[in-house]
Design goal:
Number of helices: 11
Largest sheet: 5 strands, antiparallel
Number of strands: 9
Keywords: Kinase, Transferase
GO molecular function: kinase activity
Pfam families: APH (PF01636)
Shape: globular
CATH superfamily of the largest domain: Aminoglycoside phosphotransferase (APH), C-terminal lobe
Protein name: Aminoglycoside phosphotransferase (APT) family kinase protein
Structural class: alpha+beta
Strand order of the largest sheet: 1-2-3-5-4
CATH class of the largest domain: Alpha Beta
Helix content: 40-55%
């Protein structure tokens, strides 16, 4: 992944962002496997640049223009997002499309155990995640100009079709559990119940920033956002917690949550249902299985880009790709093998 041409970026942003002023320096974040992300330090302040990777990309992937659109639309809502400043669709500036947004100061954790917090503070963090997710799903998409942000029809049917295609396009070896999982998802597709909301698509703690009181003050990484079923976001978060703990698995498997002040899956789902005004606590079996599948498909794409030389972090990409069989097996263990 080529470094930013700082002179080009500085000249371009000076011309397109009011008040922007160099000199400019940039540091690449350690995260951002999909869309490389840079912190820009300028005389006029601190900014964040998100770009598409270079090279051959899967169709519809790395949609930084969609990210820019959705954070622009959410500016007037109670969902906290950075301020969208400029979208550059000219690949000639840095070699790919990119956008710039404001930099939000806040705390961020990759590991949901949040080991530097005490139990009360940890509980506040998880409660704020839950509350913010409900706020997101309550956004009036028509009022913020996002009525056309997703296709009509059964969300899970669309998504299974899309990610199956993406997976097949980046498949590097046959993984029997992935084939079995795809077959199960197709055979057990739930009927469309008519629920539609804005969904984030990657709802987990490392895509959120928190203020000093443990409240979410910025939701990041909207690449997978669309109009869809709100339970997909909730199921995705529960899915992530089934993974091993640590910076790679980023899960809570085997963790004594009660002693840490972290809610159980059931308690977290019940809190969401209460806040959202649902009459029943939802059954997330399909949503969780789908979330395992989609993450496996995403990681397979990361692995393929690493093998092709287009990954932001090639070694990290290969390491993440090794998790594809684990995600597929975990889904089958939960919904098929018991």
């Amino acid at each position: 992944m080529a470094a930013l041409d700082l002179e080009k970026v500085e000249n371009y942003l000076t011309a397109h962002i009011p008040g922007f002023k160099g000199p400019l320096r940039a540091e690449k974040t350690a995260t951002g496997q999909s869309n490389p992300t840079f912190i820009l330090h300028a005389a006029s302040g601190t900014y964040v640049l998100r770009r598409k990777p270079e090279g051959n990309l899967l169709k519809s992937a790395h949609a930084v223009d969609r990210e820019f659109r959705v954070i622009s639309a959410l500016a007037a809502t109670d969902v906290p997002v950075p301020k969208a400043l400029h979208l550059c669709e000219d690949d000639g500036v840095i070699g790919s499309m990119f956008y710039v947004m404001s930099h939000v100061a806040g705390r961020n954790w990759v590991d949901p155990r949040t080991q530097d917090l005490d139990a009360d503070a940890r509980g506040q963090v998880f409660d704020s995640m839950n509350e913010t997710l409900v706020r997101l799903h309550a956004v009036d998409v028509a009022a913020v100009g996002l009525s056309d942000y997703g296709k009509p029809g059964n969300y899970f049917a669309r998504q299974v079709g899309r990610w199956t295609s993406q997976y097949r396009a980046s498949e590097t070896e046959t993984i029997p559990d992935m084939d079995a999982l795809i077959a199960w998802l197709e055979a057990n597709m739930p009927a469309d119940d008519g629920r539609v909301s804005l969904v984030h698509g990657d709802w987990r703690i490392d895509n959120l920033l928190f203020d000093g009181q443990g409240r979410v003050n910025a939701v990041l990484d909207w690449e997978l956002s669309t109009l869809g079923h709100p339970f997909a976001d909730l199921g995705y978060q529960i899915m992530q917690w089934q993974m091993p703990p640590g910076k790679t698995g980023r899960g809570l498997a085997g963790v004594d949550r009660a002693s840490l002040g972290i809610p159980s899956d059931a308690a977290y789902i019940e809190s969401y249902a209460r806040r959202a005004g649902l009459s029943d606590v939802p059954d997330l079996t399909y949503a969780i299985a789908f979330s395992f599948f989609r993450m496996a498909a995403i990681l397979q794409g990361v692995k393929k880009r690493a093998l092709d030389g287009n990954a932001s972090d090639p070694q990290g990409g290969l390491a993440l790709g090794a998790y594809v069989p684990m995600f597929a097996a975990a889904a089958l263990d939960r919904v098929v093998r018991g």
